[in-house]
Structures are given as structure tokens and as C-alpha cells.
Amino acid sequence: MPIIRVEMWPGRTQTQKAELAKAITEAVVRIAKTTPDQTIVVFQDIRKEDWATGGVLASEAG
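The chain above was modelled as a monomer; its predicted structure follows.
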């Protein structure tokens, strides 16, 4: 049972997440030879102040 975690900044709509979940599920089913009902996609919105790249918080980056 594949579990795919998608971590991203907040701001995507439910419609966008639904479209992304469908596309990810279709790709995993095709490539990993599993079934849609056995494929789990988990979305986690991470605030920019909780995300850093290169030692700089995304909320402070340009």
C-alpha cells in the first residue's frame, strides 16, 4: 500500500488538491502496479515560517 506525502506551503484550494491527488494516484497505479483503493495521498500544509532552505526561513526569503 503506497503512502505518498505531499508537503507544501498553504494556499492550494481543495479543487487543486483533489486534482493533484488524482494525478498522483494514477501515476502510482501505473508505475507501481497497485490499485487506486490501495494508494493513499496525504497533504500537509507547512507554513513558510516553519520551512527553511539554506538556513533561511521561507517567510524571510525574497
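Residues 3-57 form a domain with the Macrophage Migration Inhibitory Factor fold (CATH 3.30.429.10).
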